[in-house]
Amino acid sequence: MYLVKAVLILIFLQCITQTLALNxxxxxxxxxxxxxxxxxxxxxxxxxxxxxxxxxxxLPCTQIFCIGxxxxxxxxxxxxxxxxxxxxxxxxxxxxxxxxxxxxxxVCG
Length: 109
Description:
Layout: H1 2-16, E1 21-27, E2 37-40, E3 45-48, E4 53-55, E5 62-68, E6 71-77, E7 86-91, E8 104-108
Domain Single: 37-108
Pfam families: SVWC
Keywords: Secreted, Signal
């Protein structure tokens, strides 16, 4: 039952973030912490339960969403082509929650 819930949530997330994000399914499991996603942040270790997420400060607008049993979805912004004769500059709000942090400033001309 637990695996079925995890698969359904994964499918749901994939559908919602299809146009906004690049996703990668990774195993963050550790036998010392069963049923948790274990994320090494460099200076600390974050233990995530099913449905919890953590934003990675070292990468712009990137988070790990725990889908259960050590498996997590690494989510980051998708490449989106800017308007004709325009280019993206900085992120509008790097500190915003995912996926709002994906919005970028655009310069045209």
